[in-house]
Design goal:
About 60% of the residues lie in helices and about 10% in strands. The chain is mainly alpha-helical and about 150 residues long. It has a three-stranded antiparallel β-sheet with strand order 1-3-2. Strand 2 and strand 3 form a beta hairpin. The chain is globular and about 50 Å long. About 20% of the residues are buried.
Length: about 150
């Protein structure tokens, strides 16, 4: 566990510095990334809570901040008043277009690029197995959607 914590802390620090340059917290970036990866750039609030480690009230607070900054908006469900969606805005897509190249560069430099291809395949397979065991809702609402290499829809 110590090794995992050390690797996580090192990567998190490098990424948080880069995100701060774009005025985003790690959790705001995570929410925007999940929206970009989702059909119609939209997820139910409950799916956002399932996909992140946030409670429903935590998701509400993050989405409030993203709305305040014009990066996301809420949309009511047409058929069920109890359901609301979070949708990334054009401004949010533009921000992700600014952030992702540097983010991908950091991931390549400090994670995927330091592993041999067979090591990387094994690590990714292991991470998926662990994620699915400990966070079964981690992909709720986004099944079958490939993660973007670049956003470009803005």
């Amino acid at each position: 566990m110590g090794l995992l914590a050390e690797a996580y802390t090192g990567l998190s620090h490098r990424i948080s510095v880069q995100l701060a340059e774009h005025e985003l917290s790690g959790v705001e970036f995570e929410v925007l990334l999940r929206l970009v990866r989702s059909p119609e750039y939209s997820l139910r609030m409950t799916d956002l809570a399932s996909q992140t480690s946030l409670s429903t009230s935590g998701v509400t607070r993050v989405v409030d901040r993203l709305e305040r900054d014009g990066l996301a908006r809420r949309r009511a469900c047409d058929s069920d008043r109890r359901i609301s969606y979070t949708v990334i805005t054009e401004r949010g897509l533009a921000r992700m277009n600014e952030v992702l190249p540097g983010h991908l560069e950091l991931v390549e430099r400090w994670f995927t690029g330091v592993l041999a291809p067979d090591q990387l395949a094994a690590v990714l397979a292991g991470l998926r197995t662990v994620r699915d065991a400990v966070r079964p809702g981690a992909t709720s609402g986004a099944e079958g959607v490939a993660p973007p290499r670049g956003v470009r829809a803005a």
